[in-house]
Design a protein that fits this description.
elongated, single chain, MetI-like fold
Length: 238
């Protein structure tokens, strides 16, 4: 990371165009100024809430549908062509259609992000459901496990690594799409601020808001998602 900062600093000095490529120190001053004013934290918080809402919605729906497709061949045969279409549908098309059909609302923004994330979760969870141990399922039948008990003690522990992997890859996708959603149709959030300063050709503020949000997502990745995935896959190292 320090090497990248030094490289950035060196290029900014050589370019000698603070309006096009401000130095890391200049961007740091802007971040500090925006943080003190409360603007940075306000917009970061709003964007994080959108990321969280879209994440919960997409993980819940995607996991349920993916597990169903993985465990039921008839459902998989019917749903696979639709899943292929959804996986290849451009995010921009989904965002524009949601804004047209639903309106420039918070519901449309979160729905657009979730719709783009759900197919990815479905794909990962379907593959996980296909690898479920049949012997464990047979054991659950012998001991007459209820459906709820089988789900909790047999199915979900086997699917946890896949769920963690889907969450980790999905968060990276979700926050990028959230910024596009805010750029195109919201009046707050990091994406909106980037749009605002893009119109003014203010590269310093664009970098300040972009890097601040990237830093937050890296912290979430390192402190939450990676430890969760390592914990979920601990049995593989046993």
């Amino acid at each position: 990371m320090s090497i990248l900062v030094l490289l950035w600093w060196g290029i900014s000095i050589l370019a000698a165009r603070p309006d096009l490529l401000p130095s890391p120190l200049d961007v740091a001053r802007i971040i500090w100024k925006e943080a003190l004013s409360g603007s940075l934290l306000h917009h970061l918080g709003i964007t994080l809430l959108r990321v969280l809402a879209a994440f919960v919605l997409s993980m819940g729906i995607g996991a349920a549908l993916g597990i169903l497709m993985g465990m039921r061949r008839s459902v998989d045969r019917w749903g696979d062509p639709w899943l292929v279409v959804a996986l290849n549908l451009p995010a921009l098309v989904t965002i524009v259609l949601c804004y047209i059909w639903i309106g420039l609302t918070e519901v449309a923004a979160i729905a657009a992000v979730a719709i783009n994330k759900i197919p990815l979760v479905m794909t990962v969870m379907r593959e996980g459901a296909r690898t479920l141990d049949r012997e464990l399922n047979a054991m659950a039948e012998v001991f007459e496990f209820s459906n709820a008990k089988r789900l909790r003690h047999v199915i979900l522990p086997q699917l946890e690594p896949h769920f963690a992997a889907a969450a980790r890859t999905g968060v990276a996708l979700i926050w990028k799409i959230v910024l596009v959603v805010e750029f195109l149709g919201r009046s707050n959030g990091v994406g909106f601020q980037i749009h605002l300063y893009f119109q003014n050709f203010d590269v310093g503020y664009v970098l300040a808001y972009s890097l601040s949000f990237v830093a937050v997502m890296i912290v979430i990745e390192l402190c939450v998602l990676q430890p969760w995935q390592n914990h979920a896959a601990r049995w593989r190292r046993a």
